[in-house]
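Chain A, query sequence.
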Amino acid sequence: MGRIIAVANQKGGVGKTTTAVNTSAALAAMKRQVLLVDLDPQGNATTGSGIDKQALEKSTLDALMGEMPLADCIVRSEQAGYDVLPSNGDLTAAEVRLVDAPLREKRLQLALETVIDRYDYILIDCPPSLNMLTLNALVAANSVLVPLQTEYYALAGLSALLATVQQIRDHRNPRLEMEGIVRTMHD
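Chain A, predicted structure.
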C-alpha cells in the first residue's frame, strides 16, 4: 500500500511544486511506482510533468467531485516516468463546490483509496493556502513534507502550518505525521 505525502506550505513561492515534481521524478528513477496529485489550480505540477493543462478532458476536479473515478483521470508522464492526477484553473471551482458537499474534507482520501494499492508513493502538490483543497490533502496524507525558504518570515509562517497539522491530527487524521522540512532557495 502506498505512502501518501502532502507537500504543503501556506506561503507561495517556496518551492512546493518543484519539490513535489523532483521528488516524484527521483522516486520514479528508483523504480518506485509514483502518483503525483496536482491539487493546485495553477496546474504547475501538471505542466512540470510535461502534460498540457489546457488540453485536459479529465482532471483532479472530476475526481474530487465524484464525477469520474480517480483512476480514469490519471495521465502517464512518459518523460518523467510517473503518473499524474492533473489539474488546471478549473480546480478553483472545487473550493466553492466543496463547501456544501458531503464528506467535503475527505473527498481526496476516498478517491485515493481506489488506487493506493497501485503505488509505492503518492505525492500531493498543495496550493499556497490553508483552504479546503489543502485540508483534503492533509486528511488523506500519512505525512507532510514542508518546503521552507531559509528566511525569517518563512519561519514565522511555519508555526501556523504546524498548528494546522496538529489540529488535523487531533480532529480529522490521527495518523498524520511530519515527514520533514526541506530547506529551499538557500544561498
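The mean pLDDT is 92. The helical segments are 16-29, 44-48, 60-64, 70-73, 92-99, 107-112, 132-140, 152-171.
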